[in-house]
């Protein structure tokens, strides 16, 4: 990797411009990530309520696995970006290379455990016997296909740490487009392809992600020169894994807590029938799609904050955080209004069943009022992770998810059923965000003094 590529570009220039340059491509990239799930949900919904319910039961589990991937992504970006800020080129290449091996071994572990626990896990989540075979068909393909999700994400994390978010985003968008073409072909058996139904959705994901897998490694090696192909000592590899793990492991704990809480909520909703679960799944994907710009800004904050923190440019760190908070709150208000007005037409895109439509509308009229605060929580979490305080980010998540999210959701469900549950979850996001704001400000200032 040349010295020019190690230039800490994100420590120079207007913070707002740098954040925009990083965030805009990432919005497109994250749109690609969620576009996978949205397209799958749409096409699978056309098969029927049972298939949509089966896919909805997989969401909490998939969230866990994606959370692990994002944790390794954050850990890699944080460490690589800080080394770039310190102009340590050899360390950059070593961390970038060793993180790929760590990603592969992590996938191997999770895929093995996942395949062996499909039935007991989804029974625990409340999946009825008639839906379990559909879930098994989907996940037996999805689990091994994780390698094509996680490894490219970690490769792209190193690329983004240099300040280049454009190429990783283009690859994610391209993969979404490929999946969008493959879904109807494999699910419904169009143009001579076999009709595979839910199994076809899983194969479309694997094939599309495999293309990104190859492209990411080629880009990382030939364009960015980030791979170190020399044979390192075991001690050096373990040292790299430790550096990434210091951020990734607590971040993984944080990302596991959120789907765990979502799993409990899914279990509560399952008690109200397959229609409620199908509506929860459809509403969750619509919400994920609407939150893409906020997540794009948060992803842009990671290399920006990391490079400036490494360079001790603290004023730029705090300025970037303020921009993140402001954007999250404004966008959250806009999205809440749009989803409220368009709730019914959006619900009909996913189902023609009147019961599902009514409950999706209920979701979209209540939960989006707290989307801005969800964005504040994300800015807090990313900031704490990249300055090397992921354990504090975990504290924020524990307080939010188990101190207010689940208790208020349970209380709301007891008070007024599904609408009360949604209202309780919305209130919990406000309380959690306010606590997180206090926590991140206190931690950043103390860490600055300690350096």
List the helices and strands and how they pair.
Blueprint: H1 15-45, H2 49-85, H3 89-116, H4 118-124, H5 132-142, H6 147-161, H7 166-188, H8 198-223, H9 234-270, H10 274-290, H11 292-310, H12 314-341, H13 343-350, H14 354-366, H15 371-386, H16 390-450
Helix pairs in contact: 1-7, 1-10, 1-11, 2-3, 2-5, 2-6, 2-9, 2-10, 2-11, 3-6, 3-9, 4-5, 5-8, 6-8, 7-8, 9-16, 10-14, 11-12, 11-15, 12-14, 12-15, 13-14, 14-16, 15-16
Number of strands: 0
Overall helicity: over 70%
Give the radius of gyration: 21 Å
Q: How many helix segments?
A: 16
Give the termini separation.
29 Å
Enumerate the spans where pLDDT stays under 50 for 5 or more consecutive residues.
1-5
Largest sheet: none
Pairing-aware structural class of the strands and helices? mainly alpha
**Range of strand content:** under 5%
List the domain count as a whole number: 1
Question: What is the H/E string?
Answer: HHHHHHHHHHHHHHHH
**Dominant shape:** globular
Round the mean pLDDT to the nearest integer and report it. Answer: 83
């Amino acid at each position: 990797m040349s010295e020019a590529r190690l230039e800490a570009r994100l420590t120079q220039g207007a913070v707002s411009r740098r954040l925009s340059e990083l965030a805009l491509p990432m919005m497109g990239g994250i749109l690609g990530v969620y576009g996978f799930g949205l397209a799958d949900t749409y096409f699978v919904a056309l098969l029927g309520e049972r298939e949509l319910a089966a896919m909805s039961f997989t969401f909490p589990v998939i969230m866990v696995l994606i959370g692990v991937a994002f944790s390794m992504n954050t850990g890699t970006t944080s460490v690589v970006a800080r080394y770039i800020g310190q102009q340590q080129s050899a360390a950059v290449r070593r961390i970038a290379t060793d993180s790929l091996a760590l990603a592969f071994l992590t996938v191997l572990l999770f895929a093995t455990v996942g395949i062996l626990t499909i039935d007991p896990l989804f029974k625990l989540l409340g999946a009825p016997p008639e839906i379990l075979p559909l879930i098994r068909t989907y996940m037996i393909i999805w689990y091994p296909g994780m390698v094509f999700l996680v490894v490219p994400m970690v490769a792209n994390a190193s690329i983004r740490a240099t300040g280049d978010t454009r190429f990783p985003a283009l690859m994610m968008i391209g993969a979404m487009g490929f999946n969008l073409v493959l879904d109807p072909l494999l699910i419904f058996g169009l143009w001579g392809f076999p009709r595979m139904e839910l199994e076809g959705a899983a194969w479309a994901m694997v094939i599309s992600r495999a293309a990104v897998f190859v492209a990411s490694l080629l880009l990382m090696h030939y364009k960015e020169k980030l791979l170190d192909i020399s044979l390192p000592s075991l001690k050096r590899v373990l040292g790299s894994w430790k550096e990434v793990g210091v951020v990734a492991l607590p971040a993984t704990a944080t990302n596991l807590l959120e789907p765990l809480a979502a799993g409990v909520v899914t279990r509560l909703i399952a008690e109200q029938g397959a229609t409620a679960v199908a509506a929860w799944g459809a509403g969750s994907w619509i919400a994920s799609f609407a939150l893409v710009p906020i997540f794009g800004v948060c992803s842009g904050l990671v290399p920006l904050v990391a490079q400036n923190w490494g360079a001790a440019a603290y004023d730029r760190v705090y300025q970037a955080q303020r921009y993140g908070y402001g954007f999250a709150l404004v966008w959250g208000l806009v999205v809440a209004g749009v989803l409220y007005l368009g709730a019914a037409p959006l619900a009909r895109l996913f189902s023609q069943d009147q019961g599902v439509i009514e409950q999706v509308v209920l979701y979209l009229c209540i939960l989006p009022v707290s989307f801005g605060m969800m964005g504040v929580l994300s800015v807090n979490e990313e900031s704490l992770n990249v300055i090397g305080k992921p354990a504090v980010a975990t504290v924020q998540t524990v307080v939010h998810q188990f101190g207010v999210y689940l208790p208020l959701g349970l209380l709301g469900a007891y008070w007024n059923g599904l609408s009360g549950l949604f209202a309780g979850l919305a209130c919990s996001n406000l309380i959690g965000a306010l606590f997180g704001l206090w926590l991140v400000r206190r931690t950043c200032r103390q860490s600055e003094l300690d350096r």
